[in-house]
Amino acid sequence: MTRPATSSVERLTKEYRALRDVAAVADLTGWTILEITGPETREFLQGTASQDFGMPAAPPPAPKSASRTLFLTEKGRPVAHAWVAFGAALPGVSAAGAQVPEPKSAWILADPGARSGLRPHLERFRIMEDVAFRGPEEMPLLYGVAGPERDPLAEAIASKTDGALAIRGEPLSFLLVPPGTSPVATPPTVDPWAFEAWRIRAGLPFQGIDFDLDRIATELTVPEAISMSKGCYVGQEVVARTAHRGKLRRQRTGFRFAWGGDPIPKGVELRSGGLDAGHVTSTAWEPGSSEGIGMGYLTPDALAMKLDVLAVQGGKTTLLSLHSWPL
């Protein structure tokens, strides 16, 4: 994204800082929402996701919470990076036409890039399991709430909106609102500019932008989404092999750079020590600063050698400063 007009800088800075430091709401229209219902919902997801969804010792307490996960192909390629919340059916909107008791239902929430591919991927692995799918069309409205005070804000909004459901998550919590219902207590949603800067700072990769089926799961650097102690699931063999015994070709990493007024385009080559070291996937201006923030992929050798990393655009080079997330 290029830097916005001067007239909007103050507003964007305020919204970005709210997302980062307090709490603010983002409109996630266009994200991917699926509902799975049926007596084998948890077992089905346990076999198809990289997170461990084994049955808890006791039903999860309210409020509902979501866990990050990856959905992978048999070759360990990421179809989606998502959040999964169990036992969180909205009144009157379940696939069977009635509320489903926990843990017989689950919401899957993922970025817009998963919208066309995630449901067909999951349906391909539904062989004998007693589960039903709904979505991503005609689903509840979805809002994201970010910031240290995100959960009290999401729960306050849900408590004043008929049928709404607050779901706790890291680093983003969610609010599901039945179609046709206006969230009574929702503050104005932030500008997409501010949310994109927050997303990059938080290190959340988007399907089709920061990863695709050319990557493997362990290259994404999302340890929160992968259980290394879990048993068999789709793609698990590749994850285990590359995590413990293999050498990755690339690793996703975050960086900062001096903002010159324009983003570094997706796909721009990264070089270190005079050698090809990777490429850029996302960049944005950080509101309220003179810096840009971004993410991309680097070779493990480039990360280990700790030499200067340059983004190379024809005759122009930009020095990057590598950082762990949040940037």
Structure report:
This protein has 327 residues and is of the alpha+beta class. The chain folds into 2 domains: 13-202, 2-Layer Sandwich (Gyrase A, domain 2); 247-327, Beta Barrel (Elongation Factor Tu (Ef-tu), domain 3), CATH 2.40.30. It is built from 7 helices and 16 strands. It has helices at residues 6-21, 41-48, 118-124, 150-159, 192-202, 236-244, 300-305; strands at residues 24-27, 32-37, 64-65, 67-72, 78-86, 105-110, 132-134, 141-146, 165-168, 172-177, 251-258, 269-272, 275-285, 291-298, 309-313, 316-323. The chain has a 6-stranded antiparallel beta barrel. Strand 12 (269-272) and strand 13 form a beta hairpin. Helix 1 (6-21) packs across helix 5. The longest helix has 16 residues, at 6-21. Mean pLDDT is 89; it is low at 91-102.
Tags for this model:
Elongation Factor Tu (Ef-tu), domain 3; 16 strands; 327 residues; five-stranded mixed β-sheet; alpha+beta; 2 domains; single chain; globular; Gyrase A, domain 2; 7 helices
